[in-house]
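Morning F.,

Quick status update on the modeling queue. The single chain you submitted on Monday has been processed. Sequence for confirmation:
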Amino acid sequence: MAEAVANVARRINATVEEGKDSLDLSNCKLISFPEGVFKVLRSVSGNIQFITLADNEMKAISSKFFSTFTQLRELDLRGNVLTKLPDAVGEMEHLTSINLANNSFSDFPDKLTEIASLERIDLEGNSITEIPLEKLSAMPALKWLNVKSNPLDSNTQAALQSPHKFEILSTTGS
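Structure tokens below.
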């Protein structure tokens, strides 16, 4: 455990000292975003545009995360055990890409449809049965949606077959 903490600290310090626009905390055995990180990154949080928290054990992500990293453009949360996102995600004005593949979502995170800048949503390998296609179709920037390996219901599968203005990757079951 101490090794994991030291690893996180090292990566955060590198982000601060080198003035990086990215933070990589993938594969750090995190169960949540460490509270102390907010304080350390306060001075540079406005610069950070890319965060990866992939392959951790996170069950939730706080609204404070989204209100701190307001300039975020890409967020990679694949390979965690998230079931939902806080409402604050809907206020991310610059987010263009979110990767939520291989998590534990059973409902489509509806707040994502409020992010006007969002171009790519990856929800492969979750437990989602329905997708709000009407709301997604109203998203001005959306170009790509991946819902492969989800137990989509037959109505959703049928709706995915009709043409959309964005690309949809899905696994069509029989």
